[in-house]
Write a structure and sequence with these properties.
With 69 residues, this protein is an all-alpha fold. Helices cover 62% and strands 0% of the residues. The protein has one domain (4-62): 434 Repressor (Amino-terminal Domain) (Orthogonal Bundle). The protein starts with a helix and ends in a 7-residue tail after the last helix.
Length: 69
Amino acid sequence: MERFGEKLRNLRQRNGLSLRKVGEILGVYHTHISQVEHGLKPSVELIIKIADLFKVTTDQLMRDELEVD
């Protein structure tokens, strides 16, 4: 799960969303999203919310060998 933050940042940017907007949508502070993008391990609940938001699987987010499309 080393690439989780990188994948989150790529998904967020591809969808034209700011840290603040993603935080708003997910119900967390934008600073928390920034911390996750920089390596903080997210909770299972947050992983599921992120997967739902970007319409990807939790496997795609969590498994380093899988890409998000």
